[in-house]
Design a protein that fits this description.
This protein is an alpha+beta fold and 180 residues long. It has two helices and eleven strands. It has two domains: 32 residues; 137 residues, Immunoglobulin-like (Sandwich), CATH 2.60.40.1240. The longest helix has 17 residues.
Length: 180
């Protein structure tokens, strides 16, 4: 028993002397926290293709750019990007969904992103602010965003996995192109 303890103690001392970097320790910590969950990756798809994450599948059916929707007009210099999507719950239980799960981007900078515009009477096919989606259930609706009229990049529809324990999974991007 003394030999086993001595071997373990020597191994710990050797590891501490060789100096694991903070980055290596952070990577090990994140790996342990992941508990088999996917994280840190970016997956891309194109409009019309099904994209699968840990909870649901998403298909972007269409994108339309509009100056006005049902009497709503975006701020000057902006227009609506109306993204019609179908989601299907592939998780083992019902999940809470909502338009706030998604973002739109038109460039590579963080400030070139936006969250959905929401009003109860925005559209008949409005993707709800929050709802439950039962296992294997599908839902189709339109998510409304405001985007700059003079944007430089193509539009991207984004979902970033966030688990109940605040663990950040992977990022899922559907390339929308330039629908103008």
């Amino acid at each position: 028993m003394k030999k086993l303890f001595a071997a373990v103690a020597a191994s710990v001392m050797l590891l501490s002397v060789t100096g694991c970097s903070k980055e290596a320790m952070d990577n090990v910590s994140q790996f342990i926290e992941a508990s088999g969950r996917d994280y840190g990756k970016t997956y891309t798809a194109k409009m019309g293709e099904e994209q699968k994450n840990s909870f649901f599948t998403t298909v972007v059916n269409s994108v339309e750019i509009k100056d006005e929707v049902n009497g709503y007009v975006p701020d000057e210099g902006y227009e609506f990007a109306c993204v019609n999507i179908t989601v299907k719950n592939i998780f083992d239980d019902k999940i809470i969904m909502g338009c706030g799960d998604f973002e739109i981007a038109w460039g590579d900078d963080e400030d070139e992103r936006d969250v959905p515009a929401y009003a109860d009477d925005l559209s008949e096919d409005l993707y709800p602010e929050q709802f439950y989606l039962d296992k294997n259930e599908k839902f189709t609706g339109t998510v409304f965003f405001t985007v700059p009229v003079d944007r430089d990049g193509d539009l991207k529809f984004i979902y970033e996995e966030l688990y109940d324990d605040d663990f950040e999974g992977s990022t899922y991007i559907i390339e929308l192109g330039d629908p103008d």
